[in-house]
Amino acid sequence: MKKKVNPIVIMIIILLIVLGIIIYLYVKPTNTSSLDTDTSNSTTSEITTANASIQTIENTLSSSGQIESALDEKITLHASYYFEELLADENVYIEEGTNIIEYTNGTYLTAPYDCVIISTNLPNEDEVCTSSHYIEIKSIESLAMSLSISESDINKVEIGDVVDVTITSTNEKIEGYITSISEVGTYSSNGSYFSAVVTFDNNGNLKIGMSATCEIIIERAENVVAVPLEAIQTSDEGKYVIVVDGNSTSEVAVETGISNDAYIEIKSGITAL
To answer: Which pTM was predicted?
Structure first.
């Protein structure tokens, strides 16, 4: 007589088979094209992958320092006039048009712009003024900072470039411009550096001697195909990436552009997924 199989046992076996199929489908790798970013592995089962994507890549240059006046000049007194009185103190705000010097004939030397007096060389009272007498002033309207640029980056900037100036004490941002670039660099063990002057207007809250940071974008590639830096490989023939397609890989030559700390621009060779 044939022994009857317990239906409960059959049910359990069926459930185990179904469960095994579900687990297999869940952990099975999906066949997609991607980039191999792990050069130490040769089989696709061990490859760490990353997709090419659309990125905006930019590199900036920054330098900290103190705010200076963008205009410093010595104003000579009127020769043959006689000096009467100095009407303003040094290092004190002087508004444009304010009388600075009074001559004995009742005329005045006035401030050509908002400024402070830095130094003076004046005759004694009631003595005649000569070409050697002057008042040195600094503008507080037009301000400036120095931006240090390495020799590797000096050809990436030019006069007229926009610079963001951030005031240290208030975190306020002001737009400035490069108005001059030194033709002579200063040598150091890390390479030569060049000085550029960044000029900006006083918004009414700034004082000469305040600290600030200048930042300028020296390279920018907007909405370009990019891959992680570690995806780029190099051979005698040039640069390439390893493209993974399912269980197979292939080396694809690429032309690269600028890079930042994470991504590098791909000019040709592959497209973004």
So the answer is: 0.69
